[in-house]
Amino acid sequence: MTDLTPPPSTFEARLRQIGVERYHDRHPFHKMLHGGQCSIDQVRAWVVNRWYYQSRIPMKDAAFLSRVEDPALRRSWRSRIEDHDGTDSQPGGIARWLKLAEAVGLDPDYVAAGRGVLPATRFAVDAYVHYVRERPLLQAVASSLTELFAPKIHAERITGLLEHYNFATPETLAYFRHRLTEAPKDVAFGLSWVIDHARTAEEQDAASAALTFKTEVLWAQLDALYHAYVAPGHIPPGGWQPGEGLL
Length: 247
Description:
68% of the residues lie in helices and 0% in strands. With 247 residues, the chain is mostly helical. It has a single domain (8-229), classed as Heme Oxygenase, Chain A, CATH 1.20.910. Helix 3 (40-65) packs antiparallel against helix 5, helix 3 packs antiparallel against helix 6 (93-103) and helix 3 (40-65) runs antiparallel to helix 12 (201-229). The relative contact order is 0.19. The mean pLDDT is 96. Ring cyclization and eight-electron oxidation of 3a-(2-amino-2-carboxyethyl)-4,5-dioxo-4,5,6,7,8,9-hexahydroquinoline-7,9-dicarboxylic-acid to PQQ. Pfam families: TENA_THI-4 (PF03070). Keywords: Oxidoreductase, PQQ biosynthesis.
């Protein structure tokens, strides 16, 4: 029987094309943000809602690790939790995000409490955590591969925010600078693992669908922000209101 499984190079190209077509760097809200067209309240709404995603990433990774029997995979994956939670001697991504919150005038305690998060943001992020907790390991790892495309958006964000917003400094944007080195490290392992373990056409389809799902999680968060704070400007009950949670 002829092996109809596409070769690894074709599979990798397929994964990368998902980013070209679906990654949230194409979303209108990010174009506004990076181009200096967001008001300070729109930036604050983004910081409040993105916090919920950042805070759930180490929880997602811990749920993943609880299912992994291979010690080598656990060793490679657990650094992701430290990257976000930090260590006894080094702050992590969550602490850096709260520095950004403070820089835009938000009370870090308000943000850390998860107040003001849009219902659609909670739904999308929680769906991602459940996905990683429940789906086969191949799909769980593949869903993390949006990190393939993250360095580009982080670099654009650093440049755009520094150019257009007074709150932006190298210190307040430390979260994004650190991700420029953390994300490539993570994705090098994750991409290699997915390519090695997607041995059939069906497994490649499943991994591609997982990455597509993750791009939809990210896109849905920005759709919610845009609808609530840009056009038409309908903030749902419980969503952050301008003037709320400020220092």
